[in-house]
Queue: 3 jobs
Job 1
Amino acid sequence: MFKNITDFIGKTPLIEAQTLIKNPKITLLLKMEGHNPGGSVKDRAAYNMIRSALDRGEIDKSTKLIEATSGNTGIALAMIAGIFKLNIELVMPENSTKERVQTMRAYGAKVTLTSSDIGIEGARDYAEQKVAEEGYYSFNQFANDDNWKAHYKTTGPEIWKDTEGKITHFVSAMGTTGTIMGTSTYLKEQNKNIQIVGAQPTDGSKIPGIRKWEKAYLPKIFNPKKVDQVIEVSETEATEMAKRLAEEEGVFSGMSSGGSVTAALKLAETLESGVIVAVICDRGDRYLSSLLFE
């Protein structure tokens, strides 16, 4: 029986890193989210947010949709909105990579670029203004429970099954925090001793997909009680690890994945043994016009 492309969201591979871990008692597994049809982990949340809003009757084909994004969520929303014949405007900083903008437009979305000086916060403010003044509907991934529930329903169970319940530590970049919130909730229900580790940028570092939010912009879905440890990663560390992943492991990914794996290796240095799962958030091909792989 033939399937819709949305049937291929999730069920991504979990592979073992071959060169990065020197301690034979520690296994590092990489959750390959770039294998989603839209190329990133955000396919999961985007599908769940759109499907749930449609099922509840909150949106239909006449609804004007808008969402602020740093890139991957926008691509996923553009792809899935196109499948459901929905009109969506995506708002992102003007310094976003050309590949991301072109991909969203290829899926049929309208893309609005805001000043890079005000970053994703400025894009969020623009979208919120459109909602307040012009009747747009925003999924507001930063405050939408359907974001983290996507990972509670899919990412967490996949990891638990694929590790046969042997996972001891889960490491994820923290942006909207949907991935870490949903996965943490599920894994802790299976084994409360599993440690949940979030990667954040050091002060002054800019890593797409990883943020240290000011209090006013902190995602409302974020619950600090669901994260056992936060490890800071510098922009340089995330960049170098993305390059190492490509060269040493054959894993072509972006800076947020480099940040996630950097945090996992810092964690591994403190452990005698364990099974660590780190999220590889997306594919590296959407960063080729940036300086990441120069």
Note: The chain has a mean pLDDT of 94.
Job 2
Amino acid sequence: MRILLISGISGSGKSVALNVLEDAGFYCVDNLPPSLLPELVSTLLREDIQSAAMAIDSRSAYLLTGLPDTIEKLRADGHEVKILFLTASTESLVARFSETRRSHPLSHRLQKDQAMGDRLSLTECIEEEREMLATLQFLAHVVDTSSLSANTLRAWVKDVIQIEHAPLTLMFESFAFKIGVPLDTDFVFDVRMLPNPYYDLSLRALTGRDEPVVNYLNGQAMAQELYEDIRHFIEKWIPAFKHDNRSYLTIGIGCTGGQHRSVFMVEKLAEYFKDTEQVLIRHRRLM
């Protein structure tokens, strides 16, 4: 059976992701208590349902202790289990809650060590939730939705659905340092030292996927040397991540604007690794 667990920080887009999966034919359950997962899987199998998605979040946080063991048991029984964890910067989350005027799921918890009636602030709720879900995040494919539109998130969730079962999926992600380092990166490489095509007026409006920019950067010895260094680093450590049973590894490549150099490097690395690994590409500034 194909099982996709959706978790993450409240306000990061779990409902959007669950809707995408429902449209894709998954049987979807929101706010499932983790202890009921094996029973639900057995029930769905009796109904000949082969694809299911369950949202598990802070509303069930105190029941998450045994979830990693449950996931391993389901995998040992032959089920394909993936975890998608959505997160976002605190600033983005505060803005979203302000726009929707909805309260945080933890907002009604009494503040620790304070008098009765004192409630957690929104920021405190977000940080508390991050701590509660930290263990689950480590097991998951993480997506930082801070600057993503709903349409982009939908497209990225569809990419996750299409990933075939593999020991490790490499996610190459370009971003702009002027916006900030994405929260979903395992490794970050800075390519701002490379010559910037932005200052060539004939290249400014193009991206790192366009042939003139590709030819320009391929002609820079420094760009080729940096590419080789990053490639060798990734090749060296992939076996260790597979040994650690990691399902996803996100490599962030950043430049100033996220349009030329980082995009070029992501495309070049992905082209190399796609013959030996499951590879996905994301460009946060090309949406």
Note: The chain has two domains: 2-161, 169-283.
Job 3
Amino acid sequence: MKTALLLLVALAVAAGPARALRCHVCSSSSNCEKPQNCAANARYCRTRTKVEPLLGNLVEKDCVEACTPTHSLQGQVSSGAAATQCCQDDLCNRSLQSSAPAHTLLPSTALGLALALSLLTLLVAPSL
């Protein structure tokens, strides 16, 4: 009974609200920085750089649910050419040349896995 209660409490904690991802959210002609908390469903920080020959480059940073990186800035010659960078760590879209991996474990995911492994150990080990 004690083990079952502990299991329920640990599952409730692990399934509780996850900490929101933080990304820079802004739009500018240069590398802008404006940290914000993302919506709960946002999994990626995205940076898009668009080429506008008469206006210069436009940098847009935001939080998104899904992101596909692209690299189509062909010498910044054609209007509308763009590049998209994606990352999943807090404030990882600070730099325009972000090299953050697109598939890292969020801290809440790592915590959930650790709790699940601990519970499995408690259930398999002999009772105290």
Note: Confidence is low (pLDDT under 50) at residues 5-9, 98-106.
